[in-house]
Amino acid sequence: MRLRYIVLGRTVNECKHPIAVMPRRPKARKTSRRKLTAEVRTELVGASKMGHSSFKIAEDFGLNPRTVRDNLRRASSRDAGKSRPRGRPRKTNSDFDDALETSARDNPNQTLREFNINVAPTLSRTTTQRRLRERGLRKWLMPNRPQLNKEARKARLDWALAHEHWGYKEWLKVWWSDESDK
Asked: Is 0.85 topped by the overall pTM?
């Protein structure tokens, strides 16, 4: 491997009088880490059962001998060449997730915090939110709206019925204030 020398941003060939010559580090090779497919792992096991050494298998498949040894060692714990699940096991199962979704849809007026305390106190709020999000329930926050009693509802309906014949120009003169957007 040829080393290139850099002097203040220029190569040695460009410098007439190199003062401080420092070797340039060779670029690190990109690792070819890749997940072996189930077929390749099965072939590795088959080659091993036929009596080939891990070095011979590695040479034939173009793999690192350590990769072959590690995969052969783990092969006994796999089901038909499948990888084991990665990450932490789920804290909930599908039945519990179904119950969470049903309860969330039945009680839409609860905030996420109240819902978590009442329905799933053993789960963190983040886990509860993640499970609801997986089921298509997002942004769990009850909107604050003023409650209307029967008299107020009747008054609004009477007002709307009294003004239903208004035209476009009359409605332009109305200034609306929406109390429920707070």
From this structure: no
